[in-house]
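Sequence design from tokenized structure. All designs in this work follow the same two-part layout: the structure record, then the generated sequence. An example of the structure record is given first.
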């Protein structure tokens, strides 16, 4: 919460800046997966400009490179790795270098992706360059996201919400860019080039927003507090102890504060009388024991989601005859619908949290989502050799996607909200870090399983 002497966020410029920064962190991932038909067409070996189309080929180019699966896996493994490394990087590399350097690197790599639209290249080298770009872009995105969350930790919670809202809209933004490119009426190559230039503009806007923060009084006030955050936390803890003693009729003496701290931190060595008392650091293992079930639920939610989206869902085609609807079916019913309903699901936790942290219904609801794996695999995917098509009509896929997306958004947001409520106030930061790690772990597990499920088709 802002203090009484805190400046105001004039014209909500800081809020808008963090919203755009949130949008920029997930633009790369969303623009790559939404353009899967373009990449599959390029990898099919056609060197003509028609191979650069963003729409799905109704005959379906053979995905010999398993592009859907590799782009998902090589997006999430760097996220998992750099989520772990970021705790060490922040001590070695200044925050400004991490954030600005990551944004510039992402911009350059996306510019390379856009330039490759105009370059004729055989499938093998094109696949290698694209996968390397995906890996590096998502590595920088992980560093960027972790660093920005660190900055948001010193600001009012409203700004974290705005940042997350920007991330939620990144997928919608990518799907709309795809639809506009398809509806533009220009040739396929120009359409694809315009599509990949769009995130470059978004990253440029993010750079401008970040560079503007030091010039905004509101941002300067809160970011300056970051350096003294540990001291402020120590004073706050001591103040709570003094207040607690006062309520119980115990004198607020230094000796009493030291005794209370000693009781709270049973396993910590007794401090010397002349040394200043500091709050004990929460144990990671102790926090994990309290939130392990919620963390496991988060892993399973993302495991199910990434195992079929987009590796399987992007392969589903319309069962209707070729036409406009067939061309727009996958961008609308797969990517746009998923991101809209996912965003809606995340927003529902602002109104209610059900089931609560003590309920055993949460693991049951999470496990029920495994039903979506066979349901999507039995939809209208022409490229299959083992399983039959049991749900050929478009309505089945749309219904499954609605439930799949809204349950993903709601359960992800629910688990992230419940975890801090299961620990003590001074343990919440550790709980948040652990949940971020398990989020990345779930994404990586799902991306790995997508190879198996695609092979079973």
């Amino acid at each position: 919460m802002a203090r009484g002497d805190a400046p105001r966020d004039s014209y909500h410029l800081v809020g808008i800046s963090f919203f755009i920064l949130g949008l920029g962190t997930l633009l790369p991932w969303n623009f790559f997966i939404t353009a899967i038909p373009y990449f599959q067409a390029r990898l099919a070996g056609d060197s003509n400009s028609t191979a650069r189309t963003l729409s799905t080929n109704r005959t379906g180019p053979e995905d010999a490179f398993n592009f859907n699966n590799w782009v998902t896996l090589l997006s999430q493994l760097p996220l998992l790795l750099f989520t772990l490394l970021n705790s060490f990087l922040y001590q070695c590399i200044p925050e400004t270098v991490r954030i600005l350097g990551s944004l510039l690197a992402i911009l350059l790599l996306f510019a390379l992706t856009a330039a490759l639209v105009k370059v004729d290249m055989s499938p093998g080298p094109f696949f290698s360059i694209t996968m390397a770009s995906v890996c590096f872009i998502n590595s920088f995105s992980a560093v960027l996201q972790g660093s920005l969350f660190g900055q948001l930790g010193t600001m009012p919670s409203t700004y974290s919400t705005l940042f997350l809202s920007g991330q939620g809209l990144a997928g919608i933004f990518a799907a709309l860019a795809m639809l506009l490119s398809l509806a533009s009426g220009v040739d396929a190559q120009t359409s694809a080039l315009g599509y990949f230039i769009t995130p470059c503009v978004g990253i440029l806007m993010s750079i401008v927003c970040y560079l503007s923060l030091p010039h905004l009084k509101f941002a300067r006030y809160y970011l300056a507090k970051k350096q003294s955050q540990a001291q402020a936390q120590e004073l706050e803890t001591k103040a709570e102890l003094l207040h607690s003693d006062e309520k119980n009729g115990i004198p607020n003496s230094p000796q009493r504060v030291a005794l209370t701290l000693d009781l709270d931190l049973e396993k910590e060595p007794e401090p010397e009388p002349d040394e200043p008392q500091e709050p004990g650091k929460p144990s990671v293992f102790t926090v994990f024991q309290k939130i392990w079930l919620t963390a496991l639920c988060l892993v399973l939610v993302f495991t199910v989601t990434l195992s079929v989206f987009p590796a399987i869902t992007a392969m589903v085609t319309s069962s209707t005859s070729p036409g406009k609807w067939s061309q727009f079916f996958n961008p609308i019913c797969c990517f746009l619908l998923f991101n809209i309903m996912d965003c809606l699901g995340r927003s529902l936790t602002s109104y209610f949290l059900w089931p609560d942290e003590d309920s055993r219904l949460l693991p049951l609801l999470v496990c029920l989502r495994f039903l979506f794996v066979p349901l999507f695999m039995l939809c209208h995917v022409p490229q299959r050799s083992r399983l039959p098509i049991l749900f050929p009509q478009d309505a089945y896929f749309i219904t499954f996607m609605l439930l799949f997306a809204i349950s993903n958004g709601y359960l992800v947001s629910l688990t992230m909200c419940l975890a801090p409520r299961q620990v003590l106030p001074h343990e919440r930061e550790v709980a948040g870090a652990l949940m971020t790690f398990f989020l990345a772990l779930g994404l990586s597990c799902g991306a790995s399983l997508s190879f198996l499920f695609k092979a079973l088709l």
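The CA atoms of residues 19 and 162 lie 5 Å apart. We note this feature because it recurs in several other targets discussed in the main text.
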